[in-house]
């Protein structure tokens, strides 16, 4: 017979059920259900099968609950702000002002043209060629050379 998992009594079973019912976040509800089922006497393996989690993840949820209480059970992906901008705020502001008027040689802004400006300004030669197009789209640059789309030949 498997060893019973210990759950710290941060909340009673009734309080846990009420917290699950009131929770608006699906991830939080699911993680609270893990604790509820284990408190009810289910094994970690059975809980994992029932909720389509791996046994290791069920163990991690239980460990977090025991260490920090019920408030730590939530979607932690929201805490990840993502990768910081490669360009500083001042360079982005300069870029926004730069693309508001046509380039020096006339014509329209292109991704490679904008990348050349950034390379000249920052000294960074390691810029992916598609970043220029992304920056132009993010800046809503109206004076940009749009990509040509291939048309399907009609018979």
Brief summary of the model shown:
Helices cover 50% and strands 0% of the residues. It contains seven helices and no strands.
Structural write-up:
The protein is mostly helical and 155 residues long. The protein folds into two domains: 13-79, Arc Repressor Mutant, subunit A (Orthogonal Bundle); 89-138, no CATH class. Helix content is 50%, strand content 0%. It contains seven helices and no strands. The chain has helices spanning 13-22, 26-39, 44-51, 55-68, 89-98, 111-122, 130-138. It is elongated, with a radius of gyration of 27 Å. The termini are far apart. 15% of the residues are buried. The model has no long low-confidence stretch (mean pLDDT 88).
Notable features of this structure?
50% helix; single chain; 155 residues; 2 domains; mainly alpha; 7 helices; Arc Repressor Mutant, subunit A
What are the SSEs and their pairings?
Elements: H1 13-22, H2 26-39, H3 44-51, H4 55-68, H5 89-98, H6 111-122, H7 130-138
Helix pairs in contact: 1-2, 2-3, 3-4, 6-7
The total beta strand count reads 0
Taking pLDDT < 50 over at least 5 consecutive residues as the criterion, the unreliable ranges are none
Count of runs of 4 or more consecutive helical residues: 7
Task: Give the terminus-to-terminus CA distance.
Answer: 71 Å
* CATH 2nd-level architecture of the largest domain: Orthogonal Bundle
Label the structural class. Answer: mainly alpha
Oligomer: single chain
Give helix and strand order, one letter per element, not per position.
HHHHHHH
How many structurally independent domains? Answer: 2
Average pLDDT: 88
Helix fraction by DSSP (H/I, runs of at least 4): 40-55%
- CATH fold annotation of the largest domain: Arc Repressor Mutant, subunit A
| Shape descriptor | elongated
CATH class of the largest domain: Mainly Alpha
Rg of Cα set:
27 Å
């Amino acid at each position: 017979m498997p060893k019973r998992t210990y759950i710290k009594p941060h909340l009673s079973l009734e309080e846990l059920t009420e917290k699950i019912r009131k929770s608006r976040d699906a991830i939080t509800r699911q993680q609270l259900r893990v604790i509820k089922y284990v408190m009810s006497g289910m094994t970690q393996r059975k809980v994992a099968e029932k909720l389509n989690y791996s046994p290791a993840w069920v163990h991690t949820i239980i460990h977090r609950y025991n260490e920090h209480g019920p408030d730590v059970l939530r979607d932690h992906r929201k805490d990840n702000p993502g990768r910081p901008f490669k360009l500083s705020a001042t360079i982005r502001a300069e870029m926004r002002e730069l693309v508001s008027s046509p380039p020096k040689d006339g014509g329209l802004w292109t991704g490679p043209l904008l990348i050349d400006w950034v390379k000249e300004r920052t000294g960074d030669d390691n810029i992916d060629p598609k970043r220029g197009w992304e920056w132009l789209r993010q800046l809503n640059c109206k004076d940009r050379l749009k990509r040509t789309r291939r048309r399907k030949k009609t018979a």
